Amino acid sequence: MSLVVQKYGGSSVSDASAIKRVAQRIVETKRAGHSVVVAVSAMGDTTDELLELANAVSSDPPPREMDMLLTAGERISTALLTMAIRDLGVSAQSFTGPQAGVITTEHHGRARIIDVTPGRIQKAIDEDHIAIVAGFQGIHEDTQDVTTLGRGGTDTTAVALAAALGADVCEIYTDVDGVFTADPRIVPTARKLSRVTYEEMLDLAASGAKVLVPRCVEYARRYNVPIHVRSSFSAIEGTWVVSETKDGDPMEDPIIAGVAHDRSEAKITVIGVPDVPGSAARLFETVAKADCNIDMIVQNVSAVETGLTDISFTLPAADGTRALAQIEADKAEIGYDEVAYDDTIGKISLVGAGMRNNSGISAKFFAALRDAGVNIEMISTSDIRISVVTRSEKLDDAVRAVHSAFELDSSEGEAVVYGGTGR
């Protein structure tokens, strides 16, 4: 008997009929001889609806109360799914994140898991129950306050449970059949990968691929948890995310794993920064005070006659106004002339472990963008990734051009998107 942890996203449990379909799949896994633990998201657009409701009653909802509100969505879907499973004649028990032993930091709305003590979940497994756990949530050990994990938190919950319980696999069910070489909503002929390494998946996720979030992949890599990304709407085998690909697997011979894109970032350019030691440190210490994560950074060559330079960086657009306000508040300390903000950018990234040992990748990548009429504003590279920033409206053209240039299109027809959200 193996232990399987499954995760179902909001599109998989969007209504009563969807919940019944998911319950049937879970029961089939149980009847195949496996122990089963399930992490589940809120139904459909429930989280968005709760956010709208909070903003309708308060101009500045307190983060603690927002977490109390938002965790209700997962509790609803968890209870309903448990009822549906029991209706099929199989014993199941539901648990909130805190009941499941998910211990987090105290940062409301973006807490990180620091430990999982799954005593109650293990007891349910030992008593032959299916354990249904509310994803996206945990508890801070000192304050005993409920916390939420941010976007993709249920993925992270599932992997953390799998690691703590020593599960054989963590199955992430979504509305596509696996990890594709590009978003199939933009490139319908994108090819499904049979296997991808943690390293490649981490770069794809960090570059905008929405099928998994970076924190989930980081956790899986740290504890060597195999992830199987597959669709809850079909029985097709999906994509395995593992430490290394199988020797001789023809699907993994290509140099490139995929093309990712991201429209959720903004660019801040700080103009007229003194080109002296410590200037960049002062700037980014200011950004750190605003608690913002930075992605790409570019510093221009200093003008000889003025001794000044410009520094541009990208960050999540959701953090943009907060970072901008902090930079403006610290203008005298940083010593710049002016600051510009741009939230109409897009990022495209080419990812593949094979880049390390193959020449000409950059030339082909930039030639494809040139031929598509895509202007490049910023460039960032690692040994397995090339990322560029361009105009948001050119992003779809850029993705299709690069995908075709590297011959990543599938010969098996168009990919199917069952639910329409990518989660």
In this structure, how is the largest beta sheet organized?
A: 8 strands, mixed
> What percent of residues are in strands?
15-25%
Described by the principal axes of the CA atoms, the overall outline is globular
Number of helices: 12
Number of domains: 2
How many distinct beta strands? 20
Uncertain runs:
none
| Strand order in the sheet with the most strands | 3-6-2-1-9-11-12-10
Architecture of the largest domain, according to CATH? 3-Layer(aba) Sandwich
End-to-end C-alpha gap: 29 Å
> How would you classify the helix and strand content by structural class?
alpha/beta
Mean pLDDT: 92
Give the helix proportion (percent range). Answer: 25-40%
- The CATH topology label of the largest domain is Carbamate kinase
CATH class call of the largest domain: Alpha Beta
CATH superfamily of the largest domain, called what?
Acetylglutamate kinase-like
Roughly how many Å is the radius of gyration? 23 Å
Give structural notes.
This protein has 423 residues and is an alpha/beta fold. It folds into 2 domains: 3-247, Carbamate kinase (3-Layer(aba) Sandwich); 255-407, VC0802-like (2-Layer Sandwich), CATH 3.30.2130.10. Helix content is 34%, strand content 25%. It contains 12 helices and 20 strands. It has helices at 16-31, 46-57, 63-87, 119-126, 153-165, 198-206, 214-223, 279-289, 317-329, 331-334, 361-371, 395-405, and strands at 3-8, 35-40, 92-95, 102-104, 113-116, 130-134, 137-140, 146-148, 169-174, 195-197, 227-231, 239-242, 258-262, 265-274, 297-299, 308-316, 338-342, 345-351, 378-382, 385-391. It has an 8-stranded mixed beta sheet, with helices on both faces. Strand 11 and strand 12 (239-242) form a beta hairpin. Helix 5 (153-165) runs parallel beside helix 7 (214-223) and helix 6 packs antiparallel against helix 7 (214-223). The model has no long low-confidence stretch (mean pLDDT 92).
